[in-house]
Amino acid sequence: MATATDGYHEGKIMADTGAAGKDTADQGKACTADDRRAVSQETAAALVAAQFPQWAALPVRPVDVNGWDNCTFRLGDAMKIRMPTAIRYAAQGEKEARWLPHIAAHLPQSVAHELPVPVAIGRPGGDYPFPWVIQSFIPGESAAASSAVDRIALAADLADWLLALHRVPVADAPPAGPHNFFRGGDLSVYDSETQACLTRAAGRYDRASAAALWQAALSSRWQTAPVFVHGDISAGNLLLRDEKLVAVIDFGCMGAGDPACDLMMTWTFFAGESRALFRSRLGLDAATFARARGWALWKALLALDKPDTDDGTAHQAALLVIETLLAEHRAAEHGAPL
Known about the structure:
Blueprint: E1 2-3, H1 41-51, E2 60-62, E3 70-75, E4 79-84, H2 92-106, E5 118-122, E6 132-136, E7 141-142, H3 151-166, H4 191-200, H5 207-218, E8 227-229, E9 238-241, E10 244-248, E11 255-257, H6 265-268, H7 272-282, H8 286-305, H9 313-333
Parallel strand pairs: 1-5
Antiparallel strand pairs: 2-3, 3-4, 4-6, 5-6, 7-9, 8-11, 9-10
Helix pairs in contact: 3-7, 4-5, 4-8, 5-8, 8-9
């Protein structure tokens, strides 16, 4: 893998948005919001030219849908540039460079959908203060953007991929912590934030049931060895071609721990038969899904707590997820099969 010093080349329904502080994608805009840093196409091109002159002639252009943690640009036809927008995201690229080849080497051929391939690590330069990375570009349409997703097929494929990820040796993979916004860790780290959201949104849903769901999520722990977690399994990070899952992208929130954090699509994307298939194929216990409901509730409460810039659509989507979670929690309390 190239670095900036060696020059060597080895060749959102609501939701689904990942780490604390993330938001919905910016459509074709420079990444900028809250305290995040705007990153221009010109900055990205200048850094490539200065640090990787072998690629200086390749065109740099924005992607159609940008992200939150990183500004992403195409570099030629086969690569992409990922540039952190704030210091809290700055370690993600080097973590991906360390662990993506390990994960790829241990996924069986039966679920070996494409993963981003680390190509180069750049250093800060000019007025851009963070390390940045170059990875392979994987063509496809995100499941979030597709109008013709076969959700039953996707539920089966994603469940099989997650089960395979859980069998990848964790070795000395980083445990949950600030580097991945505690994905795979103990939900209690977000207790005070969740309690504040519950208080502020009083009257918009059954607060007592939501509080009970949250306490149920906090009441158990993952009891077996830690497994790899992606940390941001969302429709926007699943790429489709010909309506089939071909790639999982954006591993910045990866780590080792409790897989409950990777199950939020159970309620934010799947429904009915696809939800039941996803749940049954994973074969995880009821306590893990109770913790997963906690992760999904926390995320939906954050969305509901933010100003809605889309004519109420985001808040309505968040409320729908909350009501779905509460209905399932009540059913689980009464022993109903899920």
